[in-house]
Amino acid sequence: MGCAIIGCGKALPALEVANDDLTALVDTSDEWITTRTGIKTRRICVDETNVDLAEAAARRALGWESGDYNERRVEPEEIDLIVYSTATPDVMVPTCAALLRRRLGLVNAAAFDMNAACTGFIYGLTVAESMMAASAAGASGAPGRNPVRRALVVGAERLTRITNWLDRNTCVLFGDGAGAAVVEWDPARAGILSTYIRNDDDDTNALTCPTAFDAPQPFDTQGVKVDAMKKADPGLARIDEEVGVTEAVQEGRPRQTLYMHGQKVFKFAVEALNHAVEEVLDRAGLTIDDVSFIVPHQANERIIKYAAKKMKLPLDRFQVSIAHRGNSSSACIPMTLSDAYDEGRIKPGDKVILVGFGGGFTSGAVLFEA
Ligand code: UT7
Description:
By secondary structure, this protein is an alpha+beta fold. Helix content is 31%, strand content 22%. It contains eleven helices and 16 strands. Helix 4 links the parallel strand 5 and strand 6. Residues 28, 32-33, 36-37, 118, 168-169, 172, 207, 262-263, 265-266, 269, 299-300, 327, 358 line the site of oxa(dethia)-CoA.
């Protein structure tokens, strides 16, 4: 209670690629992609970076440019924290959050990146809310933490940079984008009523993307060995084995791309989505009838339809924004929330659920009062 969303914005790269365009790359069709996923087009970064998209989304969320939702303009020095969710950072060091802080001049903000795959924005919002609640509790009794009154929570991805464009099972699904929200601690408001984050083991490696750090290492198990620099990293082979990509890599498939067993992820997604919604409702002491609107992760329109059916809700109680964006991992939920505000579908006092699922297997939800 007390952590209110006061601004929300999104940004997309310029290039739009239609289903038919992808037939130049893989054996697919507009009909297959549309009926199996609901996707018609997706946006793809060519010269935009992850942080470019995040910056544009954040400027809108802060009310510096006309946004999808703004209660007021937030000044740079008012932001105490940046939580930046991404599985596709432009760089490892500095963090994307640090680059964003510098670009926006958020001089008082502590800033860090985090990765919880497609559920990243839910995790990020949960962390921000928890830090704000702890900070507010400290203010009235036991100080000793960073004071966090306002936070910028970002979900930004260049997912198409880890997409294998020769794999029709995955390449038709993904797109790039960024969404951002500004949250403010205001004890007079209800704001976030409950949060829930969860992990299940992805036992069959249904969704993976191994990284490929490739600086040569002058060591073997005995110590410094210059010759070892010419050899492949033995640890990498063990990681490949652990996440189940050894065979594919040996066959020449790039390591740093998404590997997915669609049906397994689909099954997990439907169950996780429903479970997370039930949990946040329970934790807030509410029922689904109290909730006006659900903003789910946008992986496949059919996943949302299944979830709606299981919850016995009409599809129009869900924001579905997948048709012209595809799945952009942790950027989906904040962008879809922005759409809902932009389309006037969220009114003050409405109770709204954000819900996500993804690699890991992560899942989670946030229930808030607008
Ligand atoms: O962000 C979180 C992570 N992602 C997800 O949540 C995604 C979850 N999974 C899904 O959305 C769906 O499983 C997919 C959209 C990925 C796939 O749909 P599906 O209905 O589960 O299809 P499938 O994998 O069972 O494949 C059915 C057929 C196969 O052919 P055969 O073996 O039946 O002859 C595939 O080879 O469709 C074929 N296929 C395609 N055909 C044309 C797979 N991809 C394509 C394609 N175009 N792009």
